[in-house]
Here is the input.
Amino acid sequence: MSQLRPKSGIDNIKPHMLSEAASDYPPVSIALNSNESAFGPSQHAIEAARAAASNLERYLENPTPILASALAHRHGLNATRIAIGNGSDDLLARLARIYLEQDCEMIRTRNGYLKTPNYAYANNAEPVAADDIEFTTSVDAILDCVTERTRMVYLANPENPAGTYLNGAEIRRLHRGLPSHVLLVLDCAYEEYVDADDYEAGHILAGQADNVVMTRTFSKIYGLAGARVGWMYACEEIIDMVGRVGLTFPVASASIAAVLAGLND
Here is the structure.
């Protein structure tokens, strides 16, 4: 038997949202657990991806300035505070690699996004589950879990799969209660679906505080789950760290063409 052993936390990682049955390609059904769009992407996005396929022999060496500039223009943001990833999952995993290690803790809400503990396990850190209130994140419960070992607090806002959210005042109360060395990660994959007046867009606090990160995705509202493109908004120091641990060619050229067309439609 091989003497090679993975990091101890790897043994705790369980399969996540993977069907055991063989599936056809292209998919013939919609997976509710993945929240895929029933309507599909913009026709302009499809056409742009097809056109980009004629150059598949070439690397797209640095897609970040291209897409960051478009996102900054669309949302009124600072392009230098934007990072691009192979889906927001890639960016969340990179944050965990950068800021979590053995003897550290990452806090999440107990009934939140099921993938989250794996980010901690992969880095020998410990996931801590804070109780919620009828599937709504409890700020007090999270703050009660904070210890000297806490390095990250992860919160999907709006929450998946519960569909609940915290208003801007509660998010800011949570942030004020955290030590400055704890990173607050706001996963805002479903932000486009919120119409509540008291919701505050995640990029606002991320643009004001050095220990807050917001992630977004093109997988949901844009119907581009298969393109695998996500983005992050944070201070420039965090953006620099995330870039250092990224892939050499992080996003496919056809995917960038698709999301740019979708963003402009």
About this structure: The beta strands are 82-85, 105-109, 126-130, 150-156, 183-187, 212-217, 230-233. DSSP finds nine helices and seven strands in the chain.
